[in-house]
């Protein structure tokens, strides 16, 4: 058992399935009191009933106050897990600004709003834990999904900013950056996901395992796919080579070869 989360009040957004449900199950198994949030009320209630938690369905951007009440007045751990992904394709075709707006709102601004609501209490108490489900796309990029890639970069930058700004005041931040995870979101990525993500895809429970290992080791960056560290290093140190490699993958996807 991880002592840091025993009897903690935990909120997991987007927890009706996939990574969110796996996180909710793991926190409950470790002795935490869990609020399960999802836009789909039925899915939220099903997971909450399974783990002995409390369902608080609705928009992840506005869940903090109701979740805090459900937990008896205190949120100790907040998992900003809800996310959206669209196969936008390229920008030489029609621009759907609705997908970009939705991506900004859910993948980034929901995190900002949650932190804004949580920080006054956390800073007064001298502690709190913010877990951001980012994606390896936030460290690297993802072909065929510009709005997802760009907003996940924003989510990573925000988590990084939170950590460097508040760690000396007791705030713990973790950024989870997996590649492919066998969820409905992966299934919706289409041919790009089949090419890039499916070959090394892992189960959602493996993401939860990686987070708890990171909590025990007090690590900010959580990489359920360890190879992402090498890709991230290559992107930083050899950007031209990295971009050429990614462009080769882009061409392979476009031509189907």
From TrEMBL:
The keyword Endoplasmic reticulum does not apply. One of its GO terms (molecular function) is oxidoreductase activity. The keyword tRNA processing does not apply. Keywords: Oxidoreductase. It comes from the Bacteria. PROSITE patterns: ADH_SHORT (PS00061). It holds the Pfam family adh_short. Belongs to the short-chain dehydrogenases/reductases (SDR) family. This is Oxidoreductase.
């Amino acid at each position: 058992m991880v002592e840091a989360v025993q009897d903690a009040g935990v909120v997991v957004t987007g927890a009706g399935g996939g990574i969110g449900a796996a996180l909710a199950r793991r926190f409950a198994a470790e002795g935490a009191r869990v609020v399960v949030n999802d836009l789909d009320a039925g899915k939220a209630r099903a997971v909450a009933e399974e783990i002995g938690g409390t369902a608080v369905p609705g928009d992840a951007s506005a869940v903090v106050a109701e979740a805090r009440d459900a937990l008896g007045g205190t949120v100790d751990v907040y998992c900003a897990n809800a996310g959206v992904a669209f196969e936008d394709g390229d920008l030489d075709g029609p621009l759907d600004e609705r997908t970009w707006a939705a991506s900004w709102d859910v993948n980034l601004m929901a995190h900002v709003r949650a932190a804004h609501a949580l920080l006054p209490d956390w800073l007064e108490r001298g502690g709190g834990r913010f877990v951001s489900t980012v994606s390896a796309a936030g460290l690297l990029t993802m072909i065929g999904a510009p709005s997802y890639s760009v907003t996940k970069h924003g989510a990573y930058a925000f988590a990084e900013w939170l950590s460097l700004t508040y760690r000396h005041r007791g705030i713990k931040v973790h950024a989870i950056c997996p590649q492919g995870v066998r969820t409905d979101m992966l299934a919706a990525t289409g041919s790009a996901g089949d090419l890039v993500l499916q070959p090394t895809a892992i189960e959602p429970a493996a993401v939860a395992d990686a987070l708890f290992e990171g909590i025990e080791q007090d690590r900010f960056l959580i990489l359920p796919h360890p190879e992402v560290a090498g890709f991230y290093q290559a992107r930083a140190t050899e950007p031209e080579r990295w971009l050429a490699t990614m462009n080769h993958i882009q061409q392979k996807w476009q031509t189907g070869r």
